[in-house]
Amino acid sequence: MTQHSERYGYHHKQLRRKWKLRVERGDVDCARCGKPVFPFQAWDLDHKPGGGPYEYLGVSHAKCNRATLTHAREEANRRWSRDW
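Predicted structure:
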């Protein structure tokens, strides 16, 4: 599995900076639900399902992106960090 620092390093930050300008103008629709991403909404630079660390789907509402199965699994693994 790719480390967090690799997935969200320089390349990711540069792409996010470019997308931010479009989001602030209101020119972006969510790659997951298709609804507009407004400047006041939390958003993610979403990865393609099953893609590599540098393969992006586009901008998604944070809620839409984090509702995916991959994020649900990651969250479940974080909650149970110890074997009891």
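Summary: The radius of gyration is 14 Å.
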